[in-house]
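Continued from yesterday's entry.
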Amino acid sequence: MAELKYKSIIPNNKPYWLLTIQNWINQQYKGLPLRNERSEFDALQYFIDVAISDLSKTRAISRSVISTEIRTDTGKTVLFIKRNNKVLQTYYIE
């Protein structure tokens, strides 16, 4: 079994909303055994999209367009969190 990992292009000074999403993901997925399958990424994407929606309703996200995208290349699947179409953070299962 594998675990969920991430890489961020902005390791310091992350926006509050991104730290909040990161924290929620850590609470939800900590110690959870995962398989590197599309269904796991679909579930993670749904979780993040709901978090983005909740943070938008509370105005924690107000000036940016935040989106998620799952991509598979050469057999490796990743999930991107994007702000204004620029990748901020990448989640992968390893």
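--- second protein ---
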Amino acid sequence: MAWWDETREKDLPDYAELICIHSLQSQWRKGYGRKMMETVLHDIKKAGYSKVMLWVFEENIRARQFYESLGFTANGKTKKDFEATELCYEKTL
């Protein structure tokens, strides 16, 4: 499952935000996540956004590599949440 909305970040007003993407661990490495992301990014672009951002836990290397493989880059913004650091990634569509 995945969902997105306009960003909640006041300093990125023209961005869409990928709020969540999840798949069962048994389905990892089968291409479903990539297909889901391609669909979500298509929908975001179709809605009129040219940029998308997301937050990812710094320690979640697998997710960060996945987003980077799709063209996302860390923009340098960070935040502390639940005793963990989150990194902001973004992509121009």
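The mean pLDDT is 93. The chain has one domain: 2-92. Will compare against the first tomorrow.
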